[in-house]
Amino acid sequence: MSDWRQSLPEDLRNSPSLEKFDNAEGGPVAALAKAYVNLEPKIAEKGVILPKPSDGLQAIRDTFTALGCPPAPDQYDPGLPEGAQIDEGFLNNMRQIAWQHGASSELFQALAQGYHADFEESIAAAQQAAEDSYKQSERALQEKWGGAYSANLQHANEAAAWMFGEEGIEALRGIQTADGQSILNHPAFAEGLAKIGAEMRSESGFSGGTPPPPVMSKDEAQRKLTEMHSDTEAREALRRRDHPAHQEMVNLRQSLYATLEGDVDRGESIANSTNISVKGDQVIQS
């Protein structure tokens, strides 16, 4: 044992930690003093002491806060640009999970921004795929139809509008074929619609105007007639020959009566219940 440690209390005198100062340059006392001076600022620095399980949940939450977790989940800021598209429900779920696990605000922001960037990339990729699919289908149909491309495309559009309407067409946009393209962009689907549209023109003679109404059942015709004759504005249009919608309503009613052909009693019952009859092109209310 070095002589300089003889003056220390017995519990310190034999400490292995002091042995490294025995032969230090400048003497053991000077070396020990220098080590303490260097250590003191580090001791004064604030640090985070990890809680033990026995310290309780509040101690754990306090540690999370010290590490950068906000006081409440709704205080997480994703740091996304204004107008960014993101599912708010999903974002709120992320906030709850991140807070429960003590994630810092910085970590949450990095996760949210990473998710948003991936989402934007997937949207862009889907849009590009849809555009490529459309162009591919367009080229295939142009090659097959040749000079009849424009006419057949119009036939297809007319048939789609008649069969599905705007809402139906929007719904079809989301349906994909086995090869991953929208069914509306598939050449076979477009060819089928074009054939239907051409048949509609040849049978009805309409050209670009309103296509003939789809075939309806007698029950549907009766329901529409009942609705028409119970509607004040519809009755007014039928009664007044100078009404802007008079001829349209007359034609519609005659079309519905024609649908009921073969069941005359029911058609007459509807007409009698409304006190309205048609003679030629004249509407008479009794």
Features:
2 strands, 286 residues, single chain, disordered C terminus, two-stranded antiparallel ribbon, mainly alpha, 11 helices, 3% strand
Layout of helices and strands:
Blueprint (H helix, E strand, L loop, with lengths): L9 H4 L14 H17 L12 H10 L21 H13 L4 H41 L3 H25 L13 H18 L13 H13 L1 H8 L6 H14 L4 H11 L1 E4 L2 E4 L1
Helix pairs in contact: 6-7, 8-10, 8-11, 9-10
Task: Summarize this entry quickly.
61% of the residues lie in helices and 3% in strands.
Task: Give an overview in words.
- The chain has 286 residues and is mainly alpha-helical.
- It has three domains: 3-44, no CATH class; 85-214, no CATH class; 218-285, no CATH class.
- Helix content is 61%, strand content 3%.
- It has eleven helices and two strands; from the N terminus they run αααααααααααββ.
- The chain has a two-stranded antiparallel sheet with strand order 1-2.
- Helix 8 runs antiparallel to helix 10.
Please estimate the helix content.
55-70%
Give average pLDDT, whole number: 79
Order of strands across the biggest sheet? 1-2
How many β-strand runs?
2
Largest sheet: 2 strands, antiparallel
Topology pattern, helix = H, strand = E: HHHHHHHHHHHEE
Task: State which percent range the strand residues make up.
Answer: under 5%
Structural class: mainly alpha
Shape: elongated
Instruction: Tell me the count of domains.
Output: 3
Low-confidence stretches: 262-286
Task: Output the radius of gyration.
Answer: 42 Å
The count of helical stretches stands at 11
Distance between the termini: 131 Å
